[in-house]
Design a protein that fits this description.
Layout (H helix, E strand, L loop, with lengths): L3 H15 L6 H24 L8 H17 L6 H23 L4 H21 L9 E2 L4 E2 L2 E2 L2 H27 L6 H7 L1 H6 L4 H27 L1 E2 L6 H14 L4 H21 L4 H15 L10 H5 L1
Antiparallel strand pairs: 1-4, 2-3
Main location: membrane
Keywords: Cell membrane, Membrane, Transmembrane, Transmembrane helix
GO cellular component, one term: plasma membrane
Length: about 300
């Protein structure tokens, strides 16, 4: 049975889909990018509830983008759904392998080790001439169920796919957080030893959630790659990971709405600041978000009604 929060999420998705035909191309790209980054923030939510802050999610975001691009160019896969599946599996598998090592660490060691893996990927891609080096390569427009997409209609279809996928993944994360395993995360943050005495293995749970967060980031990276038609090593740079962490901190750990809302706010402020002051947009962006964090130290999730937070 769907909860009210799930129905509200479906209603928000329906509103976005209804507005698709009215939105110009630049707004479609902006909104779809915000939704994709919100998907990454959903993965970070799983880890942050356990007290872990990874600074290497850009690695999976980049892997997803490159998997979509290479799947189209090298494997001949053109369908958007198959490319998203390929990107999610590639990033999820990478998260599972890296998680075998990283799941034993906590605190700053977890954060720095995850960033180290991301920077290794960035360095490899930067030196790879076959993959375009620092310039990356272009990603051709995908198809949808055999339908060729070009121009603005392609952006509208990709935006609709992004909205539907975001709603489905948000439902999945929300359902997981209501399970027994999903509720162990905050217990691990409070007292990991007691969780072990209860019969649960914190390392195994963190491993699964780390792999799941990698899968979500990979799907998001593939969406952005197909939207902008380009991938480059910058997708795996540490500043990209920092942006995701910033979204997660701004969102808080109260639920999925904060993650999606924070991603939209960050993209909107970024676009407006760059348009108003191209030279000082970073100063405007940083100052605005600093004020928001000081105003809402518990994140945007703290704005939810009290009865929702209790639930």
């Amino acid at each position: 049975m769907f909860r009210r929060a799930d129905l509200r999420l479906a209603a928000a998705g329906a509103v976005l889909l209804a507005a698709t035909s009215l939105m110009p191309g630049w707004l479609l790209v902006l909104a779809a990018t915000a939704l994709a980054k919100g998907i990454v923030a959903l993965g970070l939510l799983l880890l942050m509830r356990a007290g872990l802050v990874p600074f290497g999610q850009a690695m999976f975001y980049c892997l997803g983008g490159y998997a979509a691009g290479l799947g189209s160019l090298w494997l001949g896969i053109r369908d958007v759904l198959l490319l998203l599946l390929l990107a999610g599996l590639a990033a999820g598998a990478a998260g599972w392998v890296v998680g075998l090592l990283i799941r034993r660490y906590r605190g700053i060691f977890f954060a720095m080790l995850s960033m180290a893996f991301s920077m290794i990927l960035y360095g490899v891609l930067l030196k790879s001439q076959d993959l375009g080096s620092s310039d990356g390569f272009s990603v051709p427009r995908p198809t949808l169920l055999g339908l060729t997409m070009t121009g603005t209609p392609a952006l509208r279809i990709l935006f609709a796919v992004t909205v539907l996928l975001t709603v489905l993944l948000a439902w999945g994360v929300s359902a997981y957080l209501r399970t027994a395993m999903g509720q162990i995360g905050p217990a691990i943050r409070q007292n990991e030893v007691r969780v072990s005495y209860l019969g649960y293995e914190p390392d195994r749970l963190i491993h699964r959630e780390y792999a799941a967060s990698g899968l979500l980031a990979g799907v998001a990276g593939a969406l952005v790659a197909m939207l902008v038609g380009q991938v480059d090593p910058g997708m795996g740079f540490w500043m990209t990971s920092g942006e995701f962490v910033f979204i997660a901190i701004l969102a808080g750990t109260g639920g999925i709405w904060g993650s999606l809302g924070a991603a939209f706010i960050l993209e909107a402020v970024h676009a407006i600041a760059f348009d108003v002051a191209p030279t000082y947009w970073r100063l405007i962006l940083g100052g605005t978000l600093l004020v928001m964090i000081l105003r809402f130290p518990a994140g945007l999730s703290s704005l939810a009604p009290r009865r929702v937070r209790r639930a």
